[in-house]
Design brief:
Largest sheet: 6 strands, mixed
Strand content: 5-15%
Radius of gyration: 19 Å
Shape: globular
Low-confidence stretches: 4-10
Order of helices and strands: EEHEHHHEEHEEHHEHEHHHH
Helix content: 40-55%
Distance between the termini: 25 Å
Mean pLDDT: 93
Structural class: alpha/beta
Strand order of the largest sheet: 1-2-3-4-6-9
Length: about 280
């Protein structure tokens, strides 16, 4: 079942946080800017949500999606024109604005301890495209579009896209997207391995929640440790990763969930994991 906002949540919030069972759904909620993520309140909300999730061990999986027809338009172009917010000031002030502003999003998502799925409901443009690349998995609506379009507005990927995009689609395709700025539709994204599944628009959240459910049935500590290893594997040497793997495995062997998993397999019954 898809998560729904609680009674205390309002649609004026930049980000709607809703939990159903072990799955949290984050919904970018700025219709008037097509869910731009460059404004302080949205940045604060995404960072706070990631911190909250890391501290809540009832959460095993996160889904992030956009309200309305767009996933995210990335940077607010009107603010760029007005040279306001993070786009205003001297070159030094803008540099600091990026570091204190939108660059907090890739750091928060990258530090998220549980798997995160992007349910891409529509256009994911610029920093919006990069936000999907920051996620561990992507499921797309047939209406989804992905565009690393910074060059089209005379800019560069200032939010870490040059790090995330090649890791998802490979160097050649990342270069093509960044140098042309042209959009990639859902079918091409699937062929390139950018997304794992493309579904009809009205099936998107069902598909994302089905994937989340398949993940959430697993022991929460093992999930968090597995994600940690996969993230470390992106940049560390084999010897270091093996040492970390041995240490985390020693901890995993001591958990009640490991014993429960083994007992359930031998007893041919469904396991019940508690996070202990």
């Amino acid at each position: 079942m898809a998560a729904t906002p609680t009674a205390t949540e309002t649609h004026s919030e930049p980000l709607i946080y809703a939990q159903s069972g072990h799955v949290v759904t984050l919904t970018l909620n700025r219709h008037e800017t097509r869910n731009a993520i460059s404004e302080d309140d949205m940045i604060d909300a995404i960072e706070a949500a990631c911190t909250r999730i890391n501290q809540d061990h009832s959460v095993r999986v996160v889904i992030i999606t956009g309200a309305g027809s767009a996933f995210s338009s990335g940077g607010n172009v009107k603010d760029m024109q007005d040279k306001s917010g993070m786009f205003g000031g001297t070159a030094t002030e803008i540099r600091d604005g990026y570091r204190r502003g939108i660059q907090r999003i890739p750091l928060a998502i990258h530090r998220l301890e549980v798997p995160i799925i992007a349910a891409v409901n529509g256009a994911a443009i610029g920093a919006g495209c990069d936000l999907t690349m920051m996620c561990d998995m992507r499921v797309a609506s047939e209406k989804a579009l992905f565009a690393e379009s910074f060059v089209k507005v005379g800019l560069i990927p200032g939010d870490g896209g040059a790090w995330f995009l090649p890791r998802v689609v490979g160097v050649s395709r990342a270069n093509e997207m960044a140098f042309t700025g042209e959009p990639v539709n859902a079918a091409t994204a699937l062929a390139w391995g950018m997304v794992s599944r493309v579904v009809a628009p009205d099936e998107l959240m069902n598909a994302a929640n089905e994937l989340a459910a398949r993940i959430a049935v697993n022991p929460p500590s093992a999930l968090r440790m597995t994600k940690k290893l996969l993230k470390e594997g992106e940049h560390t040497q084999l010897e270091s990763l093996l040492e970390m793997s041995a240490s985390l495995q020693a901890l995993a062997h001591q958990t009640k969930d490991h014993a429960e998993a083994v007992d359930a397999i031998i007893g041919r019954r469904p396991p019940h994991f508690t996070g202990e």
